[in-house]
Amino acid sequence: MMAAAQQHRKKRSLAIRKTDAMNHAERQNGTVLDQIWIQGDPTSFLRSPLAFEAVFQYYANGVVHKPPELCPSAFSAELEFWRVPTSYIGACCSDSVSPLERLLESSKEDKVDDTSFEKLRFGQFRRRMWTFLERPGSSMQAKVFELSSTMFVMISVLGLSFGTIPDFQVLEYVSSGNQTILLPNGTEIIQEDIEPIRIEHPIFVFTERVCIAFFTIEYLLRLFAAPRKLRFALKPLNLVDLLAIMPFYLELMLTLMGVDDKKLRDLRWAFLVVRILRVLRVIRIIKLGRFSSGLQTFGMTLQRSQKQLQMMTIVLLTGVVFFSTMIYFLEKDEKSSPFTSIPAAYWWCIVTMTTVGYGDVVPATTTLPITIIVDNFIKVAQEEQQTEQFKAELLAMEEQERQLQQEQEQRRLKFNQSQKEIIINNNRDENKGNEQNSGKQPLIFVSNA
């Protein structure tokens, strides 16, 4: 190990100067080699040289590649010894680390060290606040706060859902415009048209404001206690927290600017924006992922299935576009056809390809007996499969017979060769005897048996 370290020492020092990814300031604790080269003393380790080659590559280009000769568990143990984060393992070698180890490593990287608060203003106070907010198991008070946050999320989502039920809504009469009425005596009267609309019950409005106030205070406290503000703000769960409260304040801003419900209906784009903002309120249900390990596991599953989901989406979109185009041109001249355009046929293709079969939109032209076709297709497919299996078995039998014939031919050739050697040896012995008896040159006979 010492020889390997001396061999790579000069290369490593050059690699560190050439790459920013290996800057010591970017690693909080540093690896084992960082501490060794800082001390400057020669050190020997009884570790695997193959694993050290991967460690050296990490210092050279910032990526870890697992040697194929190493066991995944042994390689993970070596990385743990050298304190090399498993998050730097290349995508081609990602299977060398188990999901549990990768999760533990990511949790270690996301964990904020207590020393990060030492040089900050109000460092001790912010450290205690960070522990209280981010580590529910640190105290009973932190656990109660976590349960309270979960309760507010549930109340907010339930209030948003039940607030749309007509029985829980109240009528509000708003002006929809003015109407001029001409009386028989020629007098004109301007009458205001009143339109009843349903709005959320004041209880749900009050509940929404209380929940928004709690979420706002919680987010601001987390942001204040975070030692790295930008890193905190860019985390997915913190982005969800911000998106959960933004719609309320944007809608409030439009109201303060004098854009009420009536003006919103006149300004269709603004009304659409407000509707989208109100829909975004439901995103706060994702806040439960902060407290639920099951939702976090589901998120990791979706993240690891990105390639499969992308492939499925591409296949689905390709089929939707192709069959929508085909059904549109097939039923273009039918008056009763619901497919007035290619995009109008998208929904029918989606529910058909996903085997939902909603049935609200169906073709108007004559259809074929699909059931019979499908049944015959299954039979033909089974027969074809049996034929292919029979051909494979026949080829296997022919291959075995050919190998048997080759073995028999080899045994026959070996037998003939051994017979020739026996005859040659017998002739040699006979010739030697005749030579001794008569003093003549021996004759050698070779039989072609």
TrEMBL record:
GO terms for biological process: action potential; protein homooligomerization. One of its GO terms (cellular component) is voltage-gated potassium channel complex. Its main location: membrane. Keywords: Coiled coil, Ion channel, Ion transport, Membrane, Potassium, Potassium channel, Potassium transport, Transmembrane, Transmembrane helix, Transport, Voltage-gated channel. It comes from the Eukaryota. The chain crosses the membrane at residues 144-165, 203-225, 237-257, 309-330. Residues 45-92 form the Potassium channel tetramerisation-type BTB domain. The keyword Glycoprotein does not apply. Residues 143-367 form the Ion transport domain. SUPFAM superfamilies: POZ domain, Voltage-gated potassium channels. It is found in: Membrane. Residues 421-449 are annotated as: Disordered. InterPro entries: Ion_trans_dom, SKP1/BTB/POZ_sf, T1-type_BTB, VG_K_chnl, Volt_channel_dom_sf. Residues 380-417 form a coiled coil. Signal peptide: none annotated. It is a multi-pass membrane protein. GO terms for molecular function: delayed rectifier potassium channel activity. This is Ion_trans domain-containing protein. It comes from Meloidogyne hapla.
